Amino acid sequence: xxxxxxxxxxxxxxxxxxxxxxxxxxxxxxxxxxxxxxxxxxxxxxxxxxxxxxxxxxxxxxxxxxxxxxxxxxxxxxxxxxxxxxxxxxxxxxxxxxxxxxxxxxxxxxxxxxxxxxxxxxxxxxxxxxxxxxxxxxxxxxxxxxxxxxxxxxxxxxxxxxxxxxxxxxxxxxxxxxxxxxxxxxxxxxxxxxxxxxxxxxxxxxxxxxxxxxxxxxxxxxxxxxxxxxxxxxxxxxxxxxxxxxxxxxxxxxxxxxxxxxxxxxxxxxxxxxxxxxxxxxxxxxxxxxxxxxxxxxxxxxxxxxxxxxxxxxxxxxxxxxxxxxxxxxxxxxxxxxxxxxxxxxxxxxxxxxxxxxxxxxxxxxxxxxxxxxxxxxxxxxxxxxxxxxxxxxxxxxxxxxxxxxxxxxxxxxxxxxxxxxxxxxxxxxxxxxxxxxxxxxxxxxxxxxxx
Length: 452
Known about the structure:
The protein is an alpha/beta fold. Among the domains are: about 5-105 and about 185-285 and about 310-340, Rossmann fold (3-Layer(aba) Sandwich), CATH 3.40.50.300; about 375-450. About 45% of the residues lie in helices and about 15% in strands. It has helices spanning about 5-15, 70-75, 120-130, 135-150, 170-180, 200-215, 230-235, 255-260, 275-280, 285-290, 295-300, 310-325, 325-340, 355-375, 375-395, 405-425, 430-450, and strands spanning about 25-35, 45-55, 60, 85-90, 95, 105, 190-195, 220-225, 240-245, 245-250. The longest helix is centred in the last third of the chain and has 22 residues, at about 405-425. The radius of gyration is 28 Å and the shape is elongated. It starts with 6 loop residues before the first helix and ends with a helix. About 35% of the residues are buried.
């Protein structure tokens, strides 16, 4: 069977977008293990996974909780912790090489944003911290405005992000803002860890639609996702379905329904395909079935529902076995060989932040002052307290004289002021933690993806 290629992929292969430095990512026989270190059996997190991701397409890594979605995503992005062992190959444009900063961006589940800034200010400060110092203000402004429009943040660009004190932008807009911060440096590969978590169906749709638009720019987008709606699922080009660290299906997302039907597990006409896939491979449903066994409801439905008559482990094993010998797996292996033989254009490596040290210091200082000045609980209330305490201490020790006893009074005054200022400085710890999270996330992204 021939491999169907979308128009965007055809343009890329013809070289229309090659000048930008596209990224073909291929992984072969990836196995990830958690060693026991003498405290039990070795645990396999991923079992010999192979696949590929192409520019101009968006891939969904889907599966039940604990199936290995985040582990596969972290493995491909080079973010695995040091206590796990990985075997297999990850190749970029046919070569085994490190995925560097500027080539790869990773969007985590957590939103590391300052609630006192607006989306436009957040992106602007990030741009000044990461883009080259040689760029003019007009060039930086153009990139910031282009990023805002690309992520659909125009309507909320000048509203505060919001925190526990101030109501701000919605959860979906925060997710899109987090993605906007990562695409500032125009990475060729974008990884996202469950970007629709905690969002309603409309917000999730807008987030994935924004990712779809990013992929059309010739970028490779890989996202883990738990249980998307049918509208969201239809936006994905490719699907990697996992269960227990094993591949159940890999190929075009729209052909997954056909594969399940050919394997003997057709998706009902009115059911969300992603719900059906997870129903077939999620072992948690076995617990539910066992709990309901013997009830009237189960006796009424078990004859018509073939999923009730088979254990999930049995279904998963059957699907995995059928996939390995299916035309879908054959097409995937054939496409992998083609991509491995492709000598892609060398992608320019960015060695960390391109902004100068002085510009970064100035930007961080300015951002810190803006953050503090807008935080009424941290900044303005403390100023009022300091003024009141200064007035009280000043009146208490006013005109103490120059006698011997005045020396003790002056010492007591100095000790009180020093101790009070020391303990009051602890009040700024929450604000410090908030900024530290943002800065550590930015620093971690640079260190983890910087060339060595």
